[in-house]
Every structure is written in C-alpha cells, then in structure tokens.
Amino acid sequence: MKINVLGCISRRFFASSVIPKRAPFAVLSDKDIAFFEGTVGKGNVRTQDLEDYNVDWMKWYKGHSKCVVSPSNSEEVSAVLKHCHDRQLAIVPQSGNTGMVGGSIPVYDEVILSLKRLNKHYEFNSITGILQCDAGLILEELDERLRKEGFMMPLDLGAKGSCLIGGNISTCAGGIRLLRYGNLHGNVLGLRVVLPDSHGSIVDFGSQLQKDNTGLHMHHMFIGSEGQLGVITRASILCPPAPTSVISAMIGVSSFSGCCSILRDARRFLGEILSSFEVMDAATMQCLEENEQLHNVLTSAPQFCLLIETSGSDAEHDEAKVQRFLEYVMENEMATDGVLAANKQESAFMWKLRETAPLAITKDGYVYKFDVSLPLDHFYELTDAVRERCGDKVCRVVTYGHMGDGNSHLNITTKEPSEEVEKLLYPFVFDWVVAHGGSISAEHGVGQMKRDYISVGKSERIGELTRALKPIFDPRGILSPYKMVV
Ligand code: FAD
Ligand code: 2HG
Ligand code: ZN
Hints:
By secondary structure, the chain is an alpha+beta fold. Helix 1 (30-40) packs antiparallel against helix 3, helix 9 (256-270) runs antiparallel to helix 11 and helix 10 (282-292) packs across helix 12. It is built from 16 helices and 16 strands. Strand 5 (122-125) and strand 6 form a beta hairpin. The chain is globular, with a radius of gyration of 23 Å. Flavin-adenine dinucleotide (FAD) binds at residues 3, 57, 92-100, 103-104, 115, 135, 157-159, 163-164, 166-168, 170-171, 173-176, 226-227, 231-232, 358, 443-444, 447, 480.
C-alpha cells in the first residue's frame, strides 16, 4: 500500500540553523534541458508541477528545483552525471521521497535525479537466496515477488509501499525486523554505483558472492551515504526464506524496566525466531485513540505496549515457544495484560497501531522528531527528561520505536512551530544522547535536519577524513550539496 502524503506545508524551521550559502554551481539552462531530453527521452524530463519532488513527506523542506530528470538505466544516469560534472550543475538523487531528514530534497535549485524508472532488472537465485535488482524497485513489490518464490526482503518498514530499494540502501534503513535479519551492511553484497565524475564512471563495488575478501569492502561506504558519494543503480542482496509461521502478540507493561526484563526473557525463550520487539508508550496509544480513533487491543491501559513477533518455519514449535514465554511473563506478573493475535487480521491490526503512529502524531499540528539509539538503561529516561523540560509548552511527548534494536522514536508535538520549544530541545536532546552513550541518528540519517549537529560527540579527525573522501568520488562536489558532508 502506498503511504499517504501529509497535508499542509510547514517548512522545517530551526531558528538556530544556518543554511549554507548557495555555492557557485551553474544555473540550469535550456541547453541542459535539451541535453537531458536527448539522453533520457523528452517525456522523462519534467520542468513543471514539481511540488511532489520539491517537498518531503513531512512537508518540512521545500526545494526550488526547476527540473526532474528520470533515467531508466545506469548508462543514462552516467550520461546525466557526466554532463552535470562538466557543467558544474548540482544534482540530488531521489527515490521514493519518504526520507525523514530532508536528504532527498534540493536546498536551492539543484536538479532532481528521480530513480523511479530504474525498475527493470530483477534476477533471483532461489538456491543461494541472492537477488540482483535495479535500485528503483519499490520495497514492497520486491518483497511480494520474492514471496512467490518462498523468500522475502531482509528489511521491512512502514513506508514499504513507496520507498525504493536504492533509497533504503542509501539511508541504511532499519525498520521493524532488523532484530532478526540484521542491518543492510550484512545483507547487501554488492552495489553498482554511478559516480559524478568526468566519465560518469559506472563501478561495481562488492560482488554477488557471500564471501569476497578481495580489496577494501567499498560497497559498505555507499550504504547509508545518503547520495553524497555516488548514485546506486543496482544492488545484490542476500534474502532470507520467508517464514511459514508468524506469531504476533501485544503485552502491556507498567514500567520501562519491566519492558527490559521482558526483552531479556523474549531473547532467552524465543531465541532465533524473535523477529520484532517494538514499544509504544501510553502517550502514543492516547494519540492513536484521539487522532486516528484506533483503539488499543490491550484493556489495562498500560504505561507501555510491546508488540512482539516471531517468524519461523515450524508452527507447532513456534507456538510452543511463544506459549512458554507468555506463561512465564504472566506467572511472574511481568505484564499488566497480553493479547495473542488469533489470525492474520488481528496481527495486521497490531501492526496498524504501530505503523500509524508517525501519521497520528502529525495531526497535533507540528512535530519535533528524534530518531536516536540509546543503551536500554537510558532509553526511556530521555523521554522523561524531555517531558519534564517541556512541561505544558507542548501538546505531547510520545515515544515508540524499535526497542529490540535500542532505537527510540521520540516525538514532541506542538500546535504550531515554537521557537521556545525548539530552544528547549536543541541541542539539549543531542547532547543528552551523546552523554549517555547513544547516537543522534539511529536509522533516518542526517540529511538537512541534522547537518548542524553531525559532529556532536565525534572527533574532529572523523570530520576531516569524511571531507577528504568526498572529492575522490565527487570531484566537483555537485552531488547533494549542503547536507551530510559540508
Ligand atoms: P528518499 O527519501 O528518496 O532518499 C533518501 C536519501 O537517499 C536521500 O538523501 C537521497 O538523496 C538518497 N538516495 C535515494 N536514492 C538514492 C540512490 N539510488 N543512490 C544514492 N542516493 C540515493 N526509515 C527506517 O529506517 N526505518 C523505518 O522503520 C522507517 N519507517 C518509516 C515510516 C514512514 C511512514 C515513513 C514516511 C518513513 C519511514 N522511514 C523509515 C524513513 C524512510 O522511509 C527511509 O529512510 C527510506 O529508506 C527512504 O527511502 P526512499 O526511497 O524514500 O528514499
Ligand atoms: C517508524 O519506525 C519510522 O515508524 C518513523 O522510522 C519514526 O515517526 C517516526 O519518528
Ligand atoms: Zn523506525
């Protein structure tokens, strides 16, 4: 299912943020447009009605691009990037445009390179489980195709109906099953990348092999690089067999330390079949109720709801494990109540609650969004600290997230953007996270949103090395300027 796009545009504002000045890139000319049309076909160069491309999913960022170019293969991407290099025209790769940090949106008038037409090549080996495919294929469609052969994509996220695999790799997307299938650094074996250099070089990094220790493992550099180094046009991905038995349950818990105990025991009892361990706090459930009229399946009005899922290949074995685990939790009074999904519909409703949370909070008006990794000892302390700091200046402070991976989605809502709230949150939250051993970006990336904070808690040398790396791949700095590498 394609995800909804939000309503009004409210440009992300950071009173404190200094947007870098426009660099001396060329200005798009009629000759450039003619070149693009000659390369990718007239119908695949847009110069009008660009709103959907210039604005992000959250409606926080608005670019001013005058042109969207949509190539259909690596050779066309190469010709476009070579032209942009030679002309010194800035260009931003864009896939499904579901990113949450403004990475896919131009800051000024950069050309937009839409990768949606890069969707032809699909080759799957059902013995090795290795998929080779074009970067512009939609995650959900890839998953559906693989399921017909008994396999699945190793990642899953709420935006699956709209995001493209190239966008997922470029953000190193995490999602709801990372606990079981690992992150993309483990699953992506190789990448075809087009570089914005004088040749528009097309380079195959990594391979289609599970073991390949020849040279530096350079494909990893592009995973999570947010379009700063090159354009991913094709990927080789190791895909797991699809489970034949999936069990979902929701458990109510009265304290966060109680959630941690349940996570420890879930790992112990469920072992290899544990595939999701998600948390939603009471404020999230209240928001779902008020803004989306979605009612909790748990009736004890707990402080925390855990959504736990197992994925395995033997229903009897999995059910016995889950049963033993739930009995243990209940007998030891670790939960306020619990519900085991009786069928696919009930399971889908549990996931609907979790996946609607990002949309539900936007209905309060304005959202301050944080996506952080934290050691579990401090996971919910941050929410408490922010609640205390913001008091009644905000509508609500909600936390949901991928607790099994230590990834908290802390969201603070207000009716309208507020400079006062912004000053309470920035840099407070980022400093707090780093001081408690966390990361200020768990899975959404840096984009435009965290550009000013990228060095928090990192040594200067890391910044120097990153900046030294960029021109090796992008000698004229034309690819997605003013973002992660500034
Ligand atoms: P885009 O948003 O188009 O681009 C993302 C970044 O990658 C940009 O910097 C862009 O320039 C760059 N880029 C895109 N394609 C390429 C390419 N081929 N080559 C080089 N650079 C490229 N994220 C998670 O990690 N986990 C979640 O659970 C999750 N859930 C979400 C739920 C919802 C409802 C929404 C709206 C978003 C969610 N996201 C989540 C964020 C987002 O979906 C992911 O970041 C996703 O991976 C972005 O993919 P995309 O195709 O939309 O990429
Ligand atoms: C999710 O896990 C997404 O639902 C979005 O990563 C997180 O809304 C958010 O903050
Ligand atoms: Zn997430």
